[in-house]
Amino acid sequence: MFGINFKIIFRFLGILVLFNGLFMAIATLSSYFFDDGATAGFLKSTFINMLCGFFLFYFTKNHKRGIKKREGFLIVSIGWFLMVFFGMLPFLFTGSLPFFYDAFFETMSGYTATGATVINDIESFPKSIVLWRSLTHWIGGMGIIVLAIAILPLLGIGGMQLFNAEATGIASDKLHPRISDTAKRLWLIYVTLTFLNTILLYIFGMPFFDAINHAMSTMASGGFSTKNSSLAFWNNIPSIQYTTIFFMILAGSNFVLIYYFICGKFKSVFSNTEFKWYSGFIFLFTIIVFFSLINNGYYSATDDTPFGYFENSFRHALFQIVAVITTTGLVTADFTSWSPFITMLFFGLMFLGGSTGSTSGGVKVMRHLLLIKNGFLEFKRALHPNAILMVRFNNSTIDQTIVYKVLGFFIMYLLLFIIGAGVLSLLGSDFTTSIGGAASSLGNVGPGLGDVGPSKTFSNLSMSSKIWCSILMLIGRLELFTVLILFTPHFWSKS
């Protein structure tokens, strides 16, 4: 039907659900260890995941091998919904989030590494639920698809189309000719950095449980915290916040560059155009916010801070800039309470995003650079219409078709933002909340503006608004076209 190999699609969906069940088993063991009363709910959830996953995997063993583009798009889009559907079961079965729309929103926010939450008092929740919440971040951060294709050769399934459909950015950089080896190396870096982040946070004074949860949230560019006040809980321990800043920057960097750095290819890292601009944006906007805070006296010499108001202002400025640019969304202060100018600045940064090939969401720095470079070239083309002028990036020319794709992506992104904000306003949200919620959800940022600001949650939104924001999260996480292409007639034609 439709010329699509549905058997291999269902087989791969079975693999994803099995992965989900394996990670859920970790949370089940933690529930038993903590004796937090959620073990029965987790056991039921894990059993359903493993049973359904095994069923889909086993009864599609006689499939035709090979994944084409259409199968790749379907697996990634449907797979994400399926992961969310099965991933929300612990919230429902334990009674932590008894309503479907709340559980769906929280789980979607987890897997898409958005970090928006409907939970007002996370500290009252069972520890196993808190851990599972962080695990959804960690799974979705690098991408469960990338994890799964690491083992596909063992199953006789090719995974290149999946990697391209799920991987964020303009093009997916390969570290190795075999896509499975690329996935394994990416995940090895991901696991290693998560481990290092956990150890450092623990050394600097964060309890181990909080440390591992925040490490998973940070490396996934997520934003879920174990505390109601997020990282503001540790405002009196600057080393914890500086550690988090460092790993947020790494999470928002291209993981290929991290691999090059580990291999000693320092020139490839520091000469990379996107990385230089990514670092420059962080520095520039931090300085702007820092001087604005100092000038307006938001932090004074009378504040009880370890290193004085000067350092305190710098740390909060740097932390929030990095948190928004990398779309991590962890919070040390409510930036919407600083000044209208700073609030507007942070709203604009929600559209920036981190580097391509990172765990961050948003438009991505490279896309912005290509559009800006092409915009300046248009001035030259107007003066020299017969000249052949190509966009250059990293000392190489960029094919014009890529520029057109980036332009198309940007237009579609802005259009979806406008539609997203319009629908939220139609569903009852005020103007500020609508634009903040749409920008946050589509960019996988976490905190928004208005009633969904950094010091608040999405709990006050209506049921339909939460579902709508969940859809925006998925579309943003999968780079728009992966999801939207499914709604085109051409996709379902046999040709």
Q: Characterize the biggest β-sheet.
A: 2 strands, antiparallel
Distance between the termini: 12 Å
**What's the overall geometry?**
globular
Given helix and strand content, the structural type is mainly alpha
Biggest sheet, spatial arrangement of strands: 1-2
Task: Give the C-alpha Rg.
Answer: 22 Å
User: Helical element count?
Assistant: 23
Helix coverage percent of residues? 55-70%
Instruction: Classify the beta-strand content into a percent band.
Output: under 5%
Q: What is the typical, i.e. mean, pLDDT?
A: 86
The beta-strand count equals: 2
Order of helices and strands: HHHHHHHHHHHHHHHHHHEEHHHHH
Uncertain segments are 154-160
Describe the structure.
The protein is mainly α. It is 64% helix and 1% strand. A two-stranded antiparallel ribbon has the order 1-2. Helix 5 (100-111) crosses helix 6 and helix 19 crosses helix 20 (431-442). Mean pLDDT is 86; it is low at 154-160.
